[in-house]
Every structure is written in C-alpha cells, then in structure tokens.
Design goal:
Blueprint: E1 10-14, E2 25-30, E3 43-48, E4 51-57, H1 72-81, E5 86-95, E6 105-107, E7 110-113, H2 141-154, E8 159-160, E9 163-166, H3 175-184, E10 188-190, H4 196-203, E11 206-216, H5 230-240, H6 244-253
Helix pairs in contact: 1-4, 2-6
Bound molecules: hypoxanthine.
The site of hypoxanthine has 14 residues, from strand 5, strand 10 and strand 11.
C-alpha cells in the first residue's frame, strides 16, 4: 500500500462491543490493503482534542469476524502504514481472579497464549527473515505506564497489572479450563490478545492492552452455575466504556 503517513498519536483497536470511537472529529476513512491482505474493516482516522487518532474495529464494524479468523497481521500492518507507532488494544475479557470482576478496567502486564492454528508471525512466508523477538515483557512498558498514569490523572479506576490468557474461542471456556488457567496464573481470559501482541512486537510497534471485564469467566464468580450471556457481556462493556473517553484523552494529553 502507498499512503502518505502523517504520524498518528495513538491507534486504538476496538474489541467486542466497541465498534467506534464516538468522540473522534473530522473522521476520514481508509480502506488499506496490505501485503498481508485487508484489515478487518475501515481504519477511521480523526482528531481527539487536537491529536490524530486511528480506530479499527478488530471484529469488523458489524462484528462479522470470529477471533480465529481475524487477519491480525493486516490490521497491524495497516495501522503502521497509516502512520501509527503506538497501539492501544481494547480487549473484552472474562475475569478469573478477585480483582477483575465485571465492569473493571485492567492493564495487564503478562500473557499466556493458549491459541492454536492462527498465523502468529511475520516469518510465515518462505524467504522472510526469521525473527526471534524478545517477548519476556509482552506489553510495551512505556505505553502501559502512560495508560496507568493517565487513568490516575483522569480519575478512572484501573487495575495495574495481571496476566491475560488468550484462548482460541469462539466458544467460551469450560469451568475446568478456567480453573486450569487460574492455576497457571491467569487473571483474565479473552480470545484476541494473541497473536496480536506478539505480532505488534515483530512489527516494532508499541502495544498495550486495555482489558474491559465483561463477565466472570466460567465458574469464577459467586454463582458457579452462572450462564454467561452475550447480553450481559454487551451491557457490562457498555457500562465500563464510560471510562474510556476520559482515559483516552488523558493518554493523549500525556
Ligand atoms: N472468555 C473468553 N473471552 C471472553 C470472555 C470469557 O469469559 N468474556 C469476554 N470475552
């Protein structure tokens, strides 16, 4: 693709229940095609308090793509080609440990990847350089710290740290799977955290996750028989999202 890339202050990838950034002004839409194919949908670039912000709905604006069919490489390649260096990933998740009940916002600092069969590297094609990027600290420390500090300044409650477990989906997990993830050290469970974070590292992008807890993961809440419904997920994401505009504004204000 060949797009003149004026820098973007922040790119935001929206997850389940988050298909647009309502406060963006003067929005232009881009439909880039990258060497990895087309991203999930249009990249909307606009301004927020005078800062250039890009937004991409990870599942498509009509939520048509399940987690394992998202072209994570194309999404990140498109944002990078349009001028983004910092990517804030919004991920709707289930909460496993006590600090992460429904409607909590979290900024995890670790992850475990349980996904399989997804294209998870830029080294997939024959002849590409083999990369072994360091991934001991999977999220970019400076961006995480900026998000945590911004939340404090904006008065938005945010849990700093925690381990995100990325599952294959699209089905939710069994109680035994969640119990195992808890024993493994996971605090949160979602379906889209990987390969996105690993690819961002390969692309050389700064990347952090803002997790929005939509439900107790299977068997993790008070009622072990609770059934997780999509409506509960969407209601809780909508309620927790009220903290996002002030948080994003504070991240941009730096
Ligand atoms: N598990 C996996 N992904 C999720 C969940 C969950 O409980 N809730 C929202 N995304």
């Amino acid at each position: 693709m060949n797009v003149a890339a004026a820098p973007i202050d922040l790119a935001v990838i929206g997850g389940t229940g988050l298909y647009q950034l309502a406060d963006l002004q003067d929005v232009e839409s881009h439909q880039p095609v990258t060497r990895y194919g087309a991203p999930s949908g249009p990249v909307r670039i606009g301004t927020l308090d005078g800062h250039r912000v890009a937004f991409l709905a990870r599942h498509g604006e009509g939520h048509s793509l399940p987690p394992h069919q998202i072209n994570y490489r194309a999404n990140l390649a498109a944002l990078q080609a349009l001028g983004a260096q910092r990517v804030l990933a919004l991920n709707t998740v289930g909460g496993i440990t006590e600090r992460f009940g429904p409607r909590v916002l979290g900024c995890p600092d670790q992850l475990i990847d349980y996904t399989w069969g997804r294209i998870s590297t830029l080294c997939e094609e024959p002849g590409t350089e083999v990369l072994h990027v360091d991934f001991g600290e999977p999220y970019t420390r400076s961006l995480r710290e900026a998000v945590v500090a911004a939340a404090a300044r904006a008065g938005v409650a945010l849990v700093d740290g925690g381990c995100y477990g990325a599952t294959q989906g699209p089905r939710l997990e069994t109680r035994a799977e969640i119990a195992r993830m808890k024993r493994d050290g996971c605090d949160l469970v979602g379906m889209t955290g990987m390969p996105e974070a690993g690819l961002a590292r390969e692309f050389g992008l700064d990347y952090a996750c803002l997790a929005i807890v939509a439900n107790w993961a299977a068997g993790a809440g008070q009622d072990p028989d609770e059934v997780i419904t999509l409506q509960d997920v969407l209601d809780n994401v909508a309620a927790a999202s009220s903290g996002l505009p002030p948080l994003l504004r504070a991240v941009l204000a730096g």
